């Protein structure tokens, strides 16, 4: 599988990749265990600090790894990884070393111990900054502490889940409405 | 502009429309005022009850209308409404009656006083059920109490914001990976 050469990217601008709503892969590490999960329920929450909120079900093996380590990496897979993304979401880290099973390459991160996934075109290192809603809703609020992004493709072709086994694949990108924006609303 | 004939839709299945991450229009009402805002930062949080979390900045006129009435409607616009969506996001309800200004048709809702937008292909009536994170993050947790969805198009062509005036337009839909899912993971 293809790996990407990435560059540092401003953490305040990661909406470019997450705001359109793609399926992401969340990698985590605690003590000597690592894991990867497929995750769809996330939203940007703030630019600076760069906050992302997401639901990680307590039924997932990753839940405890992330709650205890208070860290993870959000990785952005493109459509060519769709089958792997589905397989990752339909197996459990309790039974499987997912990096090995799915031939994904862990790369050391800079600010967290959870590994980056080399085969994803963007990686966002995250620290858990608010766990107030974890018990009630499984809702985690992360601060993105470092972003790594491949300069190409400029707009990666991502997959977006609709439930019931159906994905929407991202389509064309357009800036034709840009002149209608007020500068502070971009 | 086109309006849609809609049917009741199960509130536990609205992920079909919201999980892919589209830009939505949020309509609200408080006392005699109504408003519409453009909103991108949202995520499903639970199937039953059907919960949606979203960021509504306190800089928006809608913030107070929604915080006080504890209700809103999340409306799903398709790409043919993109220009209107951008114009709504770049004006304020303080200065403008947006229904009148943008020739949108308010339709009475069933469970809330905020109006549905007839020109949107889906409308989700929402009640504010948790405001614990409103002061800290402008984060609202709504329960969807009623969903109205046009039977066609089956998969509406939606717009997804990337920041900097750029939108991704939803592309093709595929169920080719469905056989890889475990039944409880669909």
Structural description of this entry:
- 2 copies of one chain form a homodimer.
- Chain A has helices spanning 15-18, 61-69, 82-89, 98-101, 134-137, and strands at residues 7-9, 24-30, 33-39, 42-46, 51-55, 71-76, 106-107, 116-117, 122-130, 139-149, 159-161, 167-174.
- By secondary structure, chain A is α+β, with helices and mostly antiparallel strands.
- The first copy, chain A, has one domain (7-185): Pnp Oxidase, Chain A.
- In chain A, strands 1, 2, 3, 4, 5, 6, 9 and 10 form an 8-stranded antiparallel beta sheet that branches. Chain A has a two-stranded antiparallel ribbon with strand order 7-8. In chain A, strands 11-12 form a two-stranded antiparallel sheet.
- At the A-B interface, α1, β4, β5, α3 and β12 of A face α1, β4, β5, α3 and β12 of B.
- β12 (167-174) of chain A pairs antiparallel with β12 (167-174) of chain B, so a sheet runs across the interface.
Q: What oligomeric state best describes the polypeptide chains here?
A: homodimer
So what's the overall shape of chain A?
Answer: globular
Class per helix and strand makeup of chain A: alpha+beta
Mean pLDDT over all positions of chain A: 97
List the chains of the largest interface with their residue counts.
A-B, 56 and 56 residues
The number of domains of chain A is 1
Low-confidence stretches of chain A: none
CATH domain topology of chain A: Pnp Oxidase, Chain A
Number of helices of chain A: 5
Q: Roughly what percent helix of chain A?
A: 10-25%
Q: What CATH architecture of chain A do you see? A: Roll
End-to-end separation of chain A: 36 Å
Total beta-strand segments of chain A = 12
Strand content of chain A: 35-45%
Helix and strand sequence of chain A = EHEEEEHEHHEEEHEEE
How many strands, which pairing sense, and closed or not: the largest β-sheet of chain A? 8 strands, antiparallel
The CATH class of chain A is Mainly Beta
Radius of gyration of chain A: 16 Å
Superfamily (CATH H level) name of chain A: Electron Transport, Fmn-binding Protein, Chain A
């Amino acid at each position: 599988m293809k790996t990407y050469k990435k560059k540092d990217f401003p953490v305040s601008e990661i909406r470019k990749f997450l705001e359109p709503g793609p399926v992401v892969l969340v990698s985590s590490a605690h003590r000597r265990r690592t894991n990867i999960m497929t995750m769809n329920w996330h939203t940007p929450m703030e630019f600076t600090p760069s906050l992302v909120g997401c639901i990680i079900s307590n039924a997932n093996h990753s839940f405890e790894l992330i709650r205890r380590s208070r860290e993870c990496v959000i990785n952005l897979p493109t459509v060519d990884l769709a089958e792997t993304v589905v397989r990752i979401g339909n197996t459990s880290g309790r039974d499987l070393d997912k990096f090995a099973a799915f031939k994904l390459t862990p790369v050391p991160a800079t600010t967290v111990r959870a590994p980056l996934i080399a085969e994803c075109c963007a990686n966002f290192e995250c620290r858990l900054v608010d766990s107030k809603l974890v018990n009630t809703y499984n809702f985690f609020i992360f601060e993105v502490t470092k972003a790594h992004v491949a300069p190409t493709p400029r707009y990666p072709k991502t997959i977006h889940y609709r439930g019931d086994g159906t994905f929407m694949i991202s389509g064309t990108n357009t800036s034709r409405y840009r002149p209608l924006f007020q500068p502070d609303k971009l």
